[in-house]
Amino acid sequence: MDPRPARHLISLDDLTDAELYRLVERGAAFSAGTLKGHRPLAGLVTGVYFAKTSTRTRTAFSAGAQRLGSSLVTYGPGDLQINTGETSEDTGRVFSRMLDVLVARTAADPREMRAWARQERMSVINAMSADEHPTQALADLTTLLRHFGRIDGLRVLYVGEGNNTAVALARALSRYPGTELELRTPPGYGLPAGVLDAARRHAERTGAVVREEHTMDGLPGGFDVVYTTRWQTTGTTKPDPDWREIFAPFQVGGGLWESSPKAVFMHDLPAHRGEEVTAEVLDGPASIAFEQAENKMHSAMAVLEWCRSAGPGA
Ligand code: CP
Predict the structure, then answer these.
(1) What average pLDDT does the segment 93-113 reach?
(2) Is 3.40.640.10 the CATH number for 12-133+296-308?
(3) Which of 141, 279, 297, 303 has its CA 20 to 30 A from that of 69?
(4) In the sheet where 264-267 sits, what is the strand order?
(5) Which of 57, 227, 299 most suits a substitution to test ligand 1, by most atoms within 8 Å of the C-beta?
C-alpha cells in the first residue's frame, strides 16, 4: 500500500480555489501532451466501481490510471457482494485494505462515498453521485482553458436540467473571476436552491455572476459558450409524464448562434440528437463536445495524480 496519506475528491466544494485551479491547469497540461511518461501511480492499484452505466468517465479513469502507471481492478453493477446483502460500509472497509484509489459512480446519496472516505489509506473519487458530477466540471474547465487559454471572464450559457453536471459547473465556474454563468433550466428542474446560493457566494467573492431563469425568453447574447446536457440524466427518472413538453422549449438549435455567433458548443455527452440538441449543432463547426469528452481522461489523470500526492509541500 502507498504510505502517503490519501486525498479524496467527493465534491468540488471540498477544494480550495488554489486546488481547483491547480487541477484544471494540470488537466490542461496532460491534454497538451507535456506530461507524457509521467507515472506517479506506478506500483499502485486503482479500483474502478461503476454501479451505473458509463462510457466516458469509466474509460477516462481506467485509461488514465493505467497511463499513470497504476494497475486496475474493475467492478460493474452486478459484481460486488453488495448485491447479496453485504453492507456498503463493510465493502468500503475491505476496499481500503487492498486498493490505493477507488473511483466510484453510485448515482446515489453522496454520504455513501463520504463514509468510504473516512480513512486515509485509499483515495475515494466521486465519478458521479446523485447530487454532483465533480470530475465532469473539471473536464469542462480543462476544455475551456485549452480552447480559450483562460477561464476568467468567460460567459457561459447553460441550457437544460439543473442536474449533477450543472451543479458541478456552477460550483466550479463561480470560483473564476469575472465569469458569467447564465442557467436556463425548465420550470421545476432547476439547480437545488442551496447550490445556487453557494455558487452566488463564491461569485460575490470572485466578481463572477451566476443567474438562473426558467424560460428561454429575454436571453442576452454574446456568450462564449453554449452548454447543454441530456434530458434523461444517468441514474434518474422523471415522475411527471409530461416532462418532455416542459423541456421542449429548451432544445439547443442553431438559432442561438444569431446572438452569440462566436460561441462554442459543449455537451457532457451522451447526447440525444433531436432532443436536447439538434444534430446540426452537435456535429457542426462550433461543437467542441468531443474534445471535451477526450479531456475527461486528461482531467481524470490530474485528479488521480492529486489524490496520491499529499505530503509535505504538496
Ligand atoms: N458525461 C459522462 O459522465 O459520461 P458517461 O456517463 O459516459 O461517463
Answers:
(1) 92
(2) no
(3) 141
(4) 209-213, 180-184, 155-159, 225-228, 264-267
(5) 57
